[in-house]
Write the structure tokens for this entry.
Amino acid sequence: MQKIIAKRVSMLELFYDLIFVYAISKITAMIHHPVAGGIPLFNYIEFVFVVIMVMQIWLYQALYINRFGKSRIIDTIGLLISMYAMTYLANNINTEWSVTFRTFNSAVVLIVAGSIWQYLCGSGKHPMRDHDVRAFAVTLILELIAVLSGLLIGYHYGIFLCVLGGLIGFLMPLAVYQQFVPKNVNFPHLVERLGLIIIITFGESLVNITRYFNGSIIQLFPALIFVLLVTMFGAYIIQDELLINHHQRSRGFVLMYSHVFMVISLLSMTAGLDYLAESGVSRLNLWLLLSISILGYYLCLVANGVYNHRDVKLQLTDYCVMLLIFLISAGISFYGMQSNCGLMIGFALCGISEFLWLLKISRVRK
């Protein structure tokens, strides 16, 4: 197979990512404050939906650049329009949807309309003959119709159409999966772009834990949190940089969808780490939130093993060992959950052990 030449991530793409740093901080704030010792289910569902909306906006732009972007005027204008509207969208992320409904969804309409324009006008002379363009355009047009209709109807009933539009944009590509052509995807560019959004998400986690780094520089509790984050990120680097075969023909669907849920898991964990400083939070709820978030992260991470080099494909033994590591570590955290250090010892051991196991797998490569 001919080696794929990686498309260079442009400075403009990196500039575009900056607004998502702000958006992710606003999303985290949605579940930053516990209510009655935990996160209300409805608030958490809102949080998940907003992550999906923001990530799908980022993905549609990244996928356009990945397939058709050539640093032309149309690429630059489309990206800047999206960035402009995304600033309004990010500024209106909260749990008071009746207040921000109009501005938030107006921004979505502008972004989706701009994406449709890019896909139809920037992909070639006969865009609808291209299977990828046709699938993306139809999906985005349906999303635009739903969100615009909801916006015109108003909050009380229109909110359901706006949610439907977001779900269409997120889930419809799965329904037309076969329409997408693997050879159109620049896989190494896609891997790099998704890696950057994970770096942004880990950055949000690091910013939030700085509150614990006060006083003496030698303290067990902040050291344990730091070890957890570093080893989790280290595990991602091993999987993303050493195990994945960057030069393969693939649609990348598992990679993309797993990263959406990885962001959800990391931001949920970030909220849980924030709650360690709150005295009114149920320790059992806190343990559950951190356990489920960390488990979700590693499940998404190992799901990307389908793209690994042949000699480092994850085996059933690897899945079993990594699950056992998590269960033992979660059990240790459960035993010591009444204290912050006791809670974090188990999770830090989980991060260290998962990192070392993936490192062992990576050493198999010749």
In short: The first helix runs from residue 11 to 29. The radius of gyration is 21 Å. The mean pLDDT is 91.
